Amino acid sequence: MIQASLINIGDELLIGQVVNTNAVWIGQQLTERGIPLRQVHLIPDEEKAIRKTLQRALDESDVVLITGGLGPTKDDITKKVLADFFNTELIFSQQVYEHYSRLSERFGRNVDEEIKRWQSMMPTSAELLQNAMGVAPGMWFEREGKIVVSMPGVPVEMKYIMQRAVLPRLQERHGGGLIVYRVIRTAITGEPEVAARLADFEKNLAANMKLAYLPHLGGVRLRLTARSSEREASHEKALQEQLDKAVSEITTRLGSMVYATEDVELSEVVGRLLRERGLHIATAESCTGGYLAHLITAVPGASNYYLGSVISYANSVKQEVLGVSKTTIQQHGAVSEACVKEMVRGMSKLLKSDWALATSGIAGPGGGTPDKPVGTIWVAVGHAKQQEAHLLQLGKDRKSNIAYTSFFALEMLRRKILAI
User: What would the pLDDT profile of 47-58 be if each residue is shown by its tens digit?
Assistant: First the structure.
Protein backbone atom coordinates (compact mmCIF):
# COMPACT_ATOMS: atom_id res chain seq x y z
CA MET A 1 0.00 0.00 0.00
CA ILE A 2 1.41 3.35 -1.02
CA GLN A 3 1.66 6.16 1.48
CA ALA A 4 1.39 9.91 0.98
CA SER A 5 2.74 13.03 2.61
CA LEU A 6 1.42 16.57 2.34
CA ILE A 7 3.43 19.79 2.46
CA ASN A 8 1.49 23.03 2.92
CA ILE A 9 3.62 26.09 2.16
CA GLY A 10 2.72 29.59 3.28
CA ASP A 11 3.62 32.11 5.96
CA GLU A 12 -0.06 33.05 6.11
CA LEU A 13 -0.84 29.55 7.39
CA LEU A 14 1.83 29.64 10.07
CA ILE A 15 0.71 32.95 11.54
CA GLY A 16 -2.94 31.90 11.55
CA GLN A 17 -4.02 34.43 8.95
CA VAL A 18 -5.50 31.64 6.82
CA VAL A 19 -7.02 28.37 8.08
CA ASN A 20 -5.44 25.26 6.56
CA THR A 21 -8.56 23.68 5.07
CA ASN A 22 -6.51 22.09 2.27
CA ALA A 23 -5.04 19.47 4.62
CA VAL A 24 -8.48 18.37 5.83
CA TRP A 25 -9.89 18.04 2.33
CA ILE A 26 -6.87 16.24 0.90
CA GLY A 27 -6.79 13.83 3.82
CA GLN A 28 -10.44 12.95 3.25
CA GLN A 29 -9.99 12.43 -0.50
CA LEU A 30 -6.94 10.20 -0.12
CA THR A 31 -8.58 8.13 2.61
CA GLU A 32 -11.60 7.45 0.43
CA ARG A 33 -9.25 6.02 -2.20
CA GLY A 34 -7.31 3.82 0.17
CA ILE A 35 -4.18 5.98 0.21
CA PRO A 36 -3.08 6.75 3.79
CA LEU A 37 -1.89 10.30 4.48
CA ARG A 38 0.90 9.67 6.97
CA GLN A 39 2.10 13.18 7.68
CA VAL A 40 1.33 16.83 7.07
CA HIS A 41 4.06 19.47 7.08
CA LEU A 42 3.30 23.18 7.47
CA ILE A 43 6.28 25.27 6.44
CA PRO A 44 7.21 28.85 5.47
CA ASP A 45 8.04 30.15 1.99
CA GLU A 46 11.75 29.53 2.50
CA GLU A 47 14.07 27.60 0.21
CA LYS A 48 15.83 25.68 2.97
CA ALA A 49 12.56 24.64 4.61
CA ILE A 50 11.06 23.49 1.31
CA ARG A 51 14.11 21.44 0.26
CA LYS A 52 14.59 19.84 3.67
CA THR A 53 10.92 18.96 4.12
CA LEU A 54 10.54 17.63 0.58
CA GLN A 55 13.54 15.33 0.99
CA ARG A 56 12.23 14.03 4.30
CA ALA A 57 8.78 13.43 2.82
CA LEU A 58 10.25 11.53 -0.14
CA ASP A 59 12.30 9.37 2.21
CA GLU A 60 9.14 8.34 4.08
CA SER A 61 6.41 8.36 1.42
CA ASP A 62 5.65 7.25 -2.13
CA VAL A 63 3.63 10.34 -3.04
CA VAL A 64 4.25 13.91 -1.90
CA LEU A 65 1.58 16.54 -2.47
CA ILE A 66 2.53 20.21 -2.14
CA THR A 67 0.21 23.20 -1.95
CA GLY A 68 1.14 26.88 -2.00
CA GLY A 69 3.96 29.11 -3.09
CA LEU A 70 3.08 29.28 -6.81
CA GLY A 71 1.95 32.90 -7.06
CA PRO A 72 3.52 35.57 -9.29
CA THR A 73 5.18 37.53 -6.49
CA LYS A 74 8.77 37.21 -5.27
CA ASP A 75 7.79 35.54 -1.98
CA ASP A 76 6.37 32.56 -3.88
CA ILE A 77 9.51 30.52 -4.55
CA THR A 78 8.21 26.94 -4.71
CA LYS A 79 8.54 26.62 -8.49
CA LYS A 80 12.16 27.73 -8.49
CA VAL A 81 13.06 25.46 -5.56
CA LEU A 82 11.42 22.45 -7.22
CA ALA A 83 13.32 23.07 -10.45
CA ASP A 84 16.60 23.12 -8.52
CA PHE A 85 15.61 20.08 -6.44
CA PHE A 86 14.91 17.99 -9.54
CA ASN A 87 18.00 19.37 -11.29
CA THR A 88 16.07 20.89 -14.15
CA GLU A 89 15.69 24.37 -15.63
CA LEU A 90 12.81 26.75 -15.99
CA ILE A 91 11.64 27.32 -19.56
CA PHE A 92 8.96 29.56 -21.02
CA SER A 93 5.57 27.89 -21.57
CA GLN A 94 3.53 29.47 -24.34
CA GLN A 95 0.51 27.47 -23.17
CA VAL A 96 0.62 28.93 -19.66
CA TYR A 97 1.29 32.42 -21.03
CA GLU A 98 -1.77 32.32 -23.31
CA HIS A 99 -3.93 30.97 -20.50
CA TYR A 100 -2.78 33.77 -18.20
CA SER A 101 -3.45 36.35 -20.91
CA ARG A 102 -6.99 35.05 -21.49
CA LEU A 103 -7.78 35.14 -17.77
CA SER A 104 -6.41 38.67 -17.42
CA GLU A 105 -8.51 39.86 -20.33
CA ARG A 106 -11.65 38.12 -19.05
CA PHE A 107 -11.41 39.79 -15.64
CA GLY A 108 -10.30 43.16 -17.03
CA ARG A 109 -6.89 43.08 -15.38
CA ASN A 110 -3.88 44.83 -16.82
CA VAL A 111 -1.10 42.48 -15.68
CA ASP A 112 2.51 43.55 -16.04
CA GLU A 113 4.23 41.72 -18.91
CA GLU A 114 7.20 40.76 -16.73
CA ILE A 115 4.90 39.11 -14.19
CA LYS A 116 3.08 37.17 -16.90
CA ARG A 117 6.33 35.89 -18.36
CA TRP A 118 7.69 34.85 -14.94
CA GLN A 119 4.45 33.05 -14.12
CA SER A 120 4.82 31.23 -17.46
CA MET A 121 8.27 29.85 -16.66
CA MET A 122 7.93 26.13 -15.89
CA PRO A 123 10.35 23.34 -14.85
CA THR A 124 11.39 21.31 -17.89
CA SER A 125 10.90 17.93 -16.23
CA ALA A 126 7.43 18.69 -14.87
CA GLU A 127 4.23 17.54 -16.50
CA LEU A 128 1.82 20.46 -16.33
CA LEU A 129 -1.69 19.87 -14.96
CA GLN A 130 -4.43 22.17 -16.19
CA ASN A 131 -5.82 24.74 -13.78
CA ALA A 132 -9.02 26.18 -15.24
CA MET A 133 -9.75 28.00 -11.95
CA GLY A 134 -6.57 30.07 -11.87
CA VAL A 135 -3.25 30.90 -13.47
CA ALA A 136 -0.66 28.52 -12.04
CA PRO A 137 -0.88 24.95 -13.37
CA GLY A 138 -0.16 21.94 -11.22
CA MET A 139 3.24 20.28 -11.71
CA TRP A 140 3.76 16.50 -11.68
CA PHE A 141 7.30 15.26 -11.07
CA GLU A 142 8.56 11.68 -10.91
CA ARG A 143 11.88 10.35 -9.66
CA GLU A 144 12.94 6.81 -8.78
CA GLY A 145 9.36 5.59 -8.75
CA LYS A 146 8.12 8.35 -6.47
CA ILE A 147 5.72 11.16 -7.30
CA VAL A 148 5.73 14.83 -6.31
CA VAL A 149 2.79 17.03 -7.24
CA SER A 150 2.86 20.78 -6.65
CA MET A 151 -0.39 22.74 -6.73
CA PRO A 152 -1.62 26.26 -5.91
CA GLY A 153 -2.67 26.89 -2.33
CA VAL A 154 -5.98 28.51 -3.28
CA PRO A 155 -8.51 25.80 -2.29
CA VAL A 156 -10.73 26.02 -5.38
CA GLU A 157 -7.69 25.74 -7.68
CA MET A 158 -6.13 22.89 -5.69
CA LYS A 159 -9.39 20.93 -5.66
CA TYR A 160 -9.84 21.35 -9.41
CA ILE A 161 -6.39 19.89 -10.11
CA MET A 162 -6.74 17.12 -7.53
CA GLN A 163 -10.14 15.96 -8.73
CA ARG A 164 -9.44 16.06 -12.45
CA ALA A 165 -5.80 15.06 -12.67
CA VAL A 166 -4.14 13.87 -9.48
CA LEU A 167 -6.60 11.59 -7.70
CA PRO A 168 -7.67 9.59 -10.80
CA ARG A 169 -4.04 8.95 -11.78
CA LEU A 170 -2.97 7.92 -8.30
CA GLN A 171 -5.85 5.49 -7.99
CA GLU A 172 -5.30 4.07 -11.47
CA ARG A 173 -1.57 3.58 -11.05
CA HIS A 174 -1.38 2.49 -7.45
CA GLY A 175 -4.87 1.29 -6.63
CA GLY A 176 -4.35 1.40 -2.91
CA GLY A 177 -6.19 -0.73 -0.42
CA LEU A 178 -9.50 -0.01 1.17
CA ILE A 179 -9.96 2.40 4.05
CA VAL A 180 -13.51 2.78 5.32
CA TYR A 181 -14.60 4.56 8.45
CA ARG A 182 -17.61 5.52 10.49
CA VAL A 183 -18.12 8.44 12.84
CA ILE A 184 -20.02 8.32 16.10
CA ARG A 185 -20.93 11.59 17.80
CA THR A 186 -21.57 11.92 21.53
CA ALA A 187 -22.94 14.83 23.54
CA ILE A 188 -22.40 16.17 27.07
CA THR A 189 -19.58 13.73 27.74
CA GLY A 190 -15.83 13.95 28.13
CA GLU A 191 -13.15 11.78 26.56
CA PRO A 192 -12.27 9.99 29.86
CA GLU A 193 -15.87 8.91 30.44
CA VAL A 194 -16.27 7.62 26.89
CA ALA A 195 -12.89 5.84 26.97
CA ALA A 196 -13.76 4.13 30.27
CA ARG A 197 -16.92 2.66 28.80
CA LEU A 198 -15.05 1.44 25.72
CA ALA A 199 -11.95 0.05 27.45
CA ASP A 200 -12.89 -3.62 27.02
CA PHE A 201 -14.10 -2.98 23.48
CA GLU A 202 -10.74 -1.51 22.49
CA LYS A 203 -8.81 -4.42 24.01
CA ASN A 204 -10.62 -6.82 21.69
CA LEU A 205 -10.58 -4.59 18.61
CA ALA A 206 -9.56 -6.41 15.41
CA ALA A 207 -6.02 -5.81 14.13
CA ASN A 208 -7.28 -4.06 10.98
CA MET A 209 -9.38 -1.59 12.96
CA LYS A 210 -8.55 1.57 14.86
CA LEU A 211 -10.61 3.79 17.15
CA ALA A 212 -9.72 7.48 17.45
CA TYR A 213 -11.05 9.94 20.03
CA LEU A 214 -11.56 13.49 18.74
CA PRO A 215 -12.97 15.79 21.45
CA HIS A 216 -15.27 18.56 20.30
CA LEU A 217 -17.36 21.13 22.11
CA GLY A 218 -19.76 19.31 24.40
CA GLY A 219 -18.76 15.76 23.54
CA VAL A 220 -16.51 13.39 21.65
CA ARG A 221 -16.27 12.55 17.96
CA LEU A 222 -15.30 8.89 17.60
CA ARG A 223 -13.81 7.71 14.31
CA LEU A 224 -13.74 3.94 13.76
CA THR A 225 -11.54 2.92 10.81
CA ALA A 226 -11.21 -0.47 9.09
CA ARG A 227 -8.54 -1.30 6.50
CA SER A 228 -7.93 -3.94 3.86
CA SER A 229 -5.05 -4.36 1.42
CA GLU A 230 -7.53 -5.37 -1.30
CA ARG A 231 -10.06 -3.24 -3.15
CA GLU A 232 -12.55 -5.83 -4.41
CA ALA A 233 -16.25 -5.26 -3.73
CA SER A 234 -16.37 -8.35 -1.55
CA HIS A 235 -13.68 -6.91 0.72
CA GLU A 236 -15.51 -3.59 0.98
CA LYS A 237 -18.73 -5.38 1.92
CA ALA A 238 -16.89 -7.36 4.59
CA LEU A 239 -15.36 -4.17 6.03
CA GLN A 240 -18.73 -2.44 6.13
CA GLU A 241 -20.27 -5.39 7.95
CA GLN A 242 -17.35 -5.38 10.38
CA LEU A 243 -17.92 -1.66 11.01
CA ASP A 244 -21.67 -2.10 11.45
CA LYS A 245 -21.12 -4.70 14.15
CA ALA A 246 -18.51 -2.56 15.96
CA VAL A 247 -20.65 0.59 15.78
CA SER A 248 -23.58 -1.33 17.22
CA GLU A 249 -21.46 -2.46 20.16
CA ILE A 250 -20.15 1.07 20.77
CA THR A 251 -23.61 2.61 20.77
CA THR A 252 -24.86 -0.07 23.15
CA ARG A 253 -22.03 0.68 25.57
CA LEU A 254 -22.44 4.46 25.37
CA GLY A 255 -26.22 4.54 25.37
CA SER A 256 -27.86 7.97 25.44
CA MET A 257 -24.48 9.69 25.09
CA VAL A 258 -24.64 8.94 21.35
CA TYR A 259 -26.64 11.38 19.27
CA ALA A 260 -25.52 10.20 15.82
CA THR A 261 -23.69 7.36 14.08
CA GLU A 262 -22.70 9.64 11.24
CA ASP A 263 -20.66 12.83 11.07
CA VAL A 264 -23.42 15.40 11.55
CA GLU A 265 -23.96 18.26 13.95
CA LEU A 266 -26.35 18.03 16.88
CA SER A 267 -28.50 20.83 15.45
CA GLU A 268 -29.17 18.72 12.34
CA VAL A 269 -30.10 15.66 14.39
CA VAL A 270 -32.50 17.70 16.53
CA GLY A 271 -33.98 19.19 13.37
CA ARG A 272 -34.68 15.73 11.96
CA LEU A 273 -36.45 14.70 15.15
CA LEU A 274 -38.62 17.80 15.11
CA ARG A 275 -39.48 17.41 11.44
CA GLU A 276 -40.28 13.70 11.76
CA ARG A 277 -42.61 14.31 14.70
CA GLY A 278 -44.21 17.46 13.36
CA LEU A 279 -43.04 19.59 16.29
CA HIS A 280 -42.23 23.30 16.43
CA ILE A 281 -39.77 25.08 18.71
CA ALA A 282 -38.88 28.61 19.75
CA THR A 283 -35.98 30.06 21.72
CA ALA A 284 -35.67 32.70 24.42
CA GLU A 285 -32.05 33.74 24.81
CA SER A 286 -30.26 36.01 27.20
CA CYS A 287 -26.57 35.21 27.66
CA THR A 288 -26.28 33.29 24.37
CA GLY A 289 -27.47 36.34 22.47
CA GLY A 290 -28.92 34.51 19.47
CA TYR A 291 -26.21 31.88 19.07
CA LEU A 292 -28.67 29.09 19.82
CA ALA A 293 -30.99 30.42 17.11
CA HIS A 294 -28.01 30.57 14.77
CA LEU A 295 -27.22 26.87 15.30
CA ILE A 296 -30.82 25.91 14.64
CA THR A 297 -31.26 28.04 11.52
CA ALA A 298 -27.90 26.99 10.06
CA VAL A 299 -29.60 23.71 9.15
CA PRO A 300 -31.38 23.80 5.75
CA GLY A 301 -35.12 23.42 6.16
CA ALA A 302 -35.20 24.79 9.71
CA SER A 303 -38.25 26.85 8.77
CA ASN A 304 -40.26 23.62 8.92
CA TYR A 305 -39.91 23.46 12.69
CA TYR A 306 -38.36 26.68 14.02
CA LEU A 307 -40.76 29.54 14.77
CA GLY A 308 -38.49 32.28 16.09
CA SER A 309 -36.65 33.78 19.03
CA VAL A 310 -36.66 36.59 21.55
CA ILE A 311 -33.22 37.90 22.56
CA SER A 312 -34.25 38.99 26.03
CA TYR A 313 -30.92 40.45 27.09
CA ALA A 314 -32.45 43.15 29.28
CA ASN A 315 -34.58 42.27 32.27
CA SER A 316 -37.25 44.62 30.96
CA VAL A 317 -37.59 42.45 27.84
CA LYS A 318 -37.82 39.32 29.96
CA GLN A 319 -40.68 40.89 31.86
CA GLU A 320 -42.54 42.86 29.19
CA VAL A 321 -42.21 40.40 26.28
CA LEU A 322 -41.82 36.98 27.91
CA GLY A 323 -43.88 37.62 31.01
CA VAL A 324 -41.20 36.87 33.60
CA SER A 325 -42.55 38.29 36.86
CA LYS A 326 -40.92 41.23 38.55
CA THR A 327 -40.95 39.26 41.79
CA THR A 328 -38.89 36.47 40.23
CA ILE A 329 -36.22 38.94 39.09
CA GLN A 330 -36.16 40.65 42.49
CA GLN A 331 -36.05 37.49 44.60
CA HIS A 332 -33.98 35.14 42.43
CA GLY A 333 -32.33 37.32 39.77
CA ALA A 334 -32.28 36.89 36.01
CA VAL A 335 -29.69 34.13 36.35
CA SER A 336 -31.89 31.62 38.13
CA GLU A 337 -33.89 28.46 37.67
CA ALA A 338 -37.14 30.32 38.22
CA CYS A 339 -36.31 32.90 35.56
CA VAL A 340 -35.43 30.47 32.75
CA LYS A 341 -38.51 28.37 33.48
CA GLU A 342 -40.69 31.45 33.16
CA MET A 343 -38.86 32.38 29.96
CA VAL A 344 -39.72 28.96 28.51
CA ARG A 345 -43.34 29.28 29.58
CA GLY A 346 -43.63 32.79 28.18
CA MET A 347 -41.94 31.90 24.88
CA SER A 348 -44.18 28.89 24.37
CA LYS A 349 -47.29 31.01 24.88
CA LEU A 350 -45.99 33.88 22.77
CA LEU A 351 -45.34 31.79 19.62
CA LYS A 352 -47.58 28.82 20.48
CA SER A 353 -44.67 26.40 20.11
CA ASP A 354 -44.60 22.76 21.16
CA TRP A 355 -41.22 23.24 22.83
CA ALA A 356 -39.11 26.20 23.90
CA LEU A 357 -35.52 26.63 25.03
CA ALA A 358 -34.22 29.37 27.31
CA THR A 359 -30.78 30.52 28.45
CA SER A 360 -29.72 33.05 31.06
CA GLY A 361 -26.36 33.44 32.74
CA ILE A 362 -23.05 35.21 33.14
CA ALA A 363 -21.00 34.45 30.04
CA GLY A 364 -18.04 36.55 31.18
CA PRO A 365 -15.33 37.49 31.36
CA GLY A 366 -16.75 39.96 33.89
CA GLY A 367 -20.03 40.40 35.71
CA GLY A 368 -19.73 37.60 38.23
CA THR A 369 -20.48 37.76 41.95
CA PRO A 370 -19.46 35.51 44.87
CA ASP A 371 -22.86 33.79 44.70
CA LYS A 372 -22.96 33.66 40.90
CA PRO A 373 -19.43 33.62 39.46
CA VAL A 374 -18.64 33.94 35.78
CA GLY A 375 -19.78 30.81 33.98
CA THR A 376 -22.95 30.42 36.04
CA ILE A 377 -25.63 29.70 33.43
CA TRP A 378 -29.15 28.31 33.61
CA VAL A 379 -30.69 26.42 30.68
CA ALA A 380 -34.31 25.35 30.46
CA VAL A 381 -36.42 23.31 28.07
CA GLY A 382 -40.12 22.65 28.09
CA HIS A 383 -43.46 24.14 27.13
CA ALA A 384 -46.28 26.13 28.70
CA LYS A 385 -47.28 23.39 31.15
CA GLN A 386 -43.94 21.90 32.19
CA GLN A 387 -40.32 23.08 32.26
CA GLU A 388 -37.02 21.51 33.24
CA ALA A 389 -33.92 23.55 34.10
CA HIS A 390 -30.26 22.72 34.51
CA LEU A 391 -27.42 24.72 36.07
CA LEU A 392 -24.08 24.95 34.26
CA GLN A 393 -20.90 26.03 36.03
CA LEU A 394 -18.53 26.87 33.20
CA GLY A 395 -15.26 28.79 32.84
CA LYS A 396 -14.42 32.39 32.05
CA ASP A 397 -14.09 32.27 28.27
CA ARG A 398 -17.10 34.08 26.86
CA LYS A 399 -17.19 32.45 23.41
CA SER A 400 -16.79 28.94 24.80
CA ASN A 401 -19.51 29.53 27.39
CA ILE A 402 -21.96 30.75 24.76
CA ALA A 403 -21.20 27.88 22.39
CA TYR A 404 -21.34 25.17 25.06
CA THR A 405 -24.57 26.50 26.55
CA SER A 406 -26.26 26.48 23.14
CA PHE A 407 -25.04 22.94 22.47
CA PHE A 408 -26.22 21.81 25.91
CA ALA A 409 -29.68 23.29 25.31
CA LEU A 410 -30.05 21.36 22.06
CA GLU A 411 -28.99 18.14 23.77
CA MET A 412 -31.54 18.72 26.54
CA LEU A 413 -34.22 19.09 23.88
CA ARG A 414 -33.09 15.97 22.01
CA ARG A 415 -33.31 13.81 25.10
CA LYS A 416 -36.68 15.23 26.09
CA ILE A 417 -38.15 14.49 22.66
CA LEU A 418 -36.78 10.92 22.66
CA ALA A 419 -38.24 10.34 26.12
CA ILE A 420 -41.77 11.05 24.94
Answer: 999 999 999 999
